[in-house]
Design a protein that fits this description.
Layout: E1 23-26, E2 31-34, E3 42-47, H1 58-76, E4 80-85, H2 103-110, H3 115-132, E5 140-141, H4 149-161, E6 165-168, E7 171-174, H5 190-196, E8 211-216, E9 232-234, H6 238-247, E10 252-258, H7 262-277, E11 282-288, E12 291-293, E13 296-297, H8 308-313, H9 318-326, E14 334-336, H10 338-362, H11 370-380, H12 385-397, H13 403-417, H14 437-451, H15 455-467, E15 470-475, E16 478-483
Parallel strand pairs: 3-4, 3-10, 4-5, 10-11, 12-14
Antiparallel strand pairs: 1-2, 6-7, 7-8, 8-9, 12-13, 15-16
Helix pairs in contact: 1-9, 2-3, 4-6, 4-7, 6-7, 9-10, 10-13, 11-12, 11-13, 12-13, 14-15
Bound molecules: adenosine monophosphate and zinc ion.
């Protein structure tokens, strides 16, 4: 097969030395395993992407900061990472299985426009959100499901020809009973799932676990295509199998997603791809735990979500959210509260201040140290970000390390964590007394505006600070705030 190198930046990694093992928890085995890629020096990585019928919420964003951290660890370990995140712009259904309303139609109806316009708007917003979180999107391929309808049809047809699918009045369904080991990811008890499923929702299917590969169009469906099974639209799961095959090949190294995808979506991907291609599909499955709000999972359908834009409107730097995520291990649930975000923001501001001071003291010269070795070991041990951050804090506060050793660690921490530690943005760290909260917020907003090169907004905020009696001056170590004496 042709490796799709032209879609990825050249030289996006160096050949691995083979001396630095990386351990990852594989949902397939439930164990931590040493990572060995199929092709030496290259890691093929796919992450289930968002359905673009509205903005991605911060729970979704946790999933992509996790896969970005994984990418960083692989790159720092010497791998060239070919990375794909799909954009679901076909209106699959709101429910987890095959029931519910068509999400893209819901979005189009809400904004009185077409599914295409909704998809374009929210795909762009999603990519902007990733960039705000310091994810290098120029290095990721974002295929859209509507661009791969043909590939999805070809895969479904292969499954039908091989006897893994059966036709129904309303489309084509995958026959899970024909695929040995169906449900092995996460050891899903398929028998119980079948027994407990709502049979009435899909009377036509042989088993409730069977799923649509193609579904006939209903008269009001806004998105529909021709196929060997008549006009209709592809099932939800087939797009990931088809796009992985088209862009990365028949077998990939790592597939990531939120843990909600294990039971149905990812098991269905395995069934489709392995049945059609007759070979293993994914070597390492990795899943992030949920972000919760008041003890409940954050989900658009539950209406309890927060967006990155809300966080920025509150005056926080977007990287405060990244730091908040990294404080927890990706396999542990995290509970979002505004207080926890404020604490994360304060922590990151302090890290930036320490980093600015070390940059000055070391003149940005780096030296190796024991703490650097410990940091790398923590990150390569299944992305141990809480341990790695603890090592970073301890080292920066310690008097036992030289400024050069500290700077060496900061550079490594930046490469792995992506918190702009080596180039801290203008911040509201001000020498001296406490700043009132409303003033701190204005300063943080100004920092965000400057970061986004929105200098008009930054100037407006500076004027607002002036009218409130504060003067801000941008020094080499960040903005310096002084209270005007009246
Ligand atoms: P979706 O658009 O629902 O397919 O979600 C996109 C990605 O975000 C998937 O990998 C989901 O598993 C993940 N996800 C959704 N909700 C959350 C949450 N509350 N916490 C963490 N990950 C989530
Ligand atoms: Zn997927």
């Amino acid at each position: 097969m042709l490796w799709p190198t032209r879609w990825f930046k050249k030289g996006a990694g160096i050949a691995p030395s083979g001396k630095v093992p990386i351990f990852l928890t594989n949902t397939l085995s439930g164990d931590k395993e040493v990572f060995i890629s199929h092709t030496r020096g290259t890691a093929l990585l796919y992450s289930c992407g968002p359905t673009v019928y509205g903005p991605a919420h911060i729970g979704n964003l946790r999933s992509y900061v996790f896969s970005d951290t994984l990418t960083r660890v692989l790159k720092c370990g010497g791998y060239r990472v070919l990375r794909v995140i799909n954009i679901t712009d076909v209106g699959h259904l709101v429910g987890d299985g095959d029931e519910g309303e068509d999400k893209m139609a819901v979005g189009a109806e809400r904004e009185k426009t077409s599914p295409e316009a909704i998809a374009k708007k929210y795909a762009e917003l999603f990519i902007e959100d990733l960039e705000q979180l310091n994810i290098d999107t120029s290095d990721i391929r974002f295929p859209r499901a509507t661009e791969y309808i043909n590939e999805q049809i070809v895969l479904a047809r292969t499954l039908e020809e091989k006897g893994f699918a059966y036709r129904l009045k309303h489309g084509l369904a995958f026959d899970t009973a024909r695929f040995p080991g169906y449900g092995r990811l996460g050891n899903v008890d398929v028998a119980a799932q079948r027994a407990g499923a709502r049979v009435d929702a899909d009377k036509e299917k042989r088993h409730p676990a069977d799923f649509w590969l193609w579904r006939s169009a209903r008269p009001h469906d806004l998105q529909q295509w021709n196929s060997p099974w008549g006009r209709g639209n592809p099932g939800w799961h087939i797009e990931c199998s088809a796009m992985i095959r088209a862009l990365l090949g028949p077998e990939i190294d790592i597939h990531t997603g939120g843990e909600d995808h294990i039971a149905i979506h990812n098991n269905n991907e395995i069934a489709q791809s392995e049945a059609a291609l007759g070979r293993p599909f994914v070597r390492y499955w990795m899943h992030n735990a949920f972000l919760t709000m008041d003890g409940e999972k954050a989900a658009k359908s539950l209406g309890n979500v927060v967006y990155l834009s809300d966080i920025m409107e509150h005056g926080y730097h977007p990287l405060a959210l990244r730091y908040f995520f990294l404080q927890a291990h990706y396999r542990s649930p995290i509970s979002f509260t505004w207080e926890a975000l404020a604490a994360a923001s304060a922590g990151l501001e302090r890290l930036w201040a320490l980093s600015r001071a070390v940059a000055d003291e070391s003149a940005r010269a780096r030296e190796a140290s024991q703490s650097r070795t410990a940091f790398l070991a923590a990150m390569r041990d299944d992305l141990g970000t809480p341990q790695a951050l603890a090592i970073l804090w301890e080292t920066l506060r310690s008097e036992e390390y030289s400024p050069e050793e500290k700077w060496g660690l900061i550079e490594d921490a930046e490469a792995h964590l992506g918190l702009k530690l080596t180039e801290p943005p203008a911040s509201n760290t001000v020498a001296g007394a406490d700043i009132p909260e409303d003033i701190a917020r204005l300063l943080a907003k100004r920092a965000t505006a400057r970061d986004a090169k929105d200098f008009a907004e930054a100037d407006r905020l500076r004027d607002e600070l002036e009218t409130r009696g504060y003067h801000v001056e941008d020094g080499p170590a960040g903005p310096v705030l002084t209270k005007r004496t009246l």
